Recover the amino acids of this structure.
């Protein structure tokens, strides 16, 4: 039997990149997976290309009520939630003195408020079964993995908004671990270094996303992209599959006693992106 056979997983922001690689890995090992993205067409295409059983819920998770709707769709289809991976996100970089209130708030909304709302939405579907299992003398573990970044652990020039939000989700993780450990809900975070995704790609005209009808530029300057790999002891950027491996580990039974931790998935990079 596959290690995650019978488990139900939600992976936010899972139509591309790290989220897609995570959904594929969870599915490969037996989990049923909900695919979520702003772009419904891309989410449905991704779901159709994953071999296991999938469900799609497209939508902007920063809008009030959408996280609850997403969780409700999973419960209606599969009746439970065993794994939640809070992965959805993007960047809006600028030096602090040029950063707008809107850019700062947007990063807090997607990287901190959305994970908070997703955790709150799954709460009854994780806590209530756990109470019954506890009363019956059973020990069944469920998993929450929040995606952070070394920008949140070390800071990063040009990312005051992103770094603040990714740091805040670590505080959320550690607090929830204290509250929900009694229910055998493992709550951990992964902090990624330089992973090759749209967020670390070249700042090309085509490397954009649409948020509330506005085009948001993604990527990093090419001179910085050439510099960062030299700071990684393993000698190369990580791939989405590398990143997904860290998340997957925390979703397995081998991580049942790993709780309230931040797993650094960086290839050995211990500083920030440029220092």
């Amino acid at each position: 039997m596959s290690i995650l056979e019978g488990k139900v997983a939600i992976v936010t922001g899972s139509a591309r990149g790290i989220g897609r690689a995570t959904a594929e890995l969870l599915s490969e090992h037996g989990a049923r997976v909900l695919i979520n993205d702003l772009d419904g067409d891309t989410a449905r295409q991704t779901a159709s290309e994953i071999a296991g059983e999938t469900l799609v819920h497209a939508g902007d998770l920063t809008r009030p009520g959408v996280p609850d709707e997403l969780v409700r769709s999973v419960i209606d289809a599969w009746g439970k939630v065993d794994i939640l991976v809070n992965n959805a996100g993007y960047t809006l970089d600028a030096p602090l003195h040029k950063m707008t209130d809107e850019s700062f708030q947007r990063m807090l909304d997607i990287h901190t408020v959305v994970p908070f709302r997703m955790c709150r939405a799954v709460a009854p579907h994780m806590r209530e079964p756990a109470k019954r299992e506890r009363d019956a003398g059973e020990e069944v573990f469920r998993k929450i993995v929040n995606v952070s970044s070394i920008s949140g652990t070390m800071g990063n020039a040009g990312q005051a908004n992103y770094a603040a939000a990714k740091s805040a989700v670590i505080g959320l993780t550690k607090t929830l671990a204290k509250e929900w450990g009694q229910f055998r809900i493992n709550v951990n975070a992964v902090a990624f270094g330089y992973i090759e995704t749209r967020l670390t790609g070249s700042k090309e005209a085509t490397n954009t996303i649409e948020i509330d009808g506005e085009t948001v530029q993604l990527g990093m300057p090419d001179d910085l992209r050439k510099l960062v790999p030299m700071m990684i002891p393993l000698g190369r950027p990580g791939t989405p599959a590398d990143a997904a491996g860290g998340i997957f580990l925390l979703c397995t039974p081998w991580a049942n006693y790993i709780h309230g931790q931040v797993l650094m998935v960086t290839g050995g990079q211990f500083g920030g992106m440029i220092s």
The first strand starts at residue 8 and ends at 11. The radius of gyration is 18 Å.
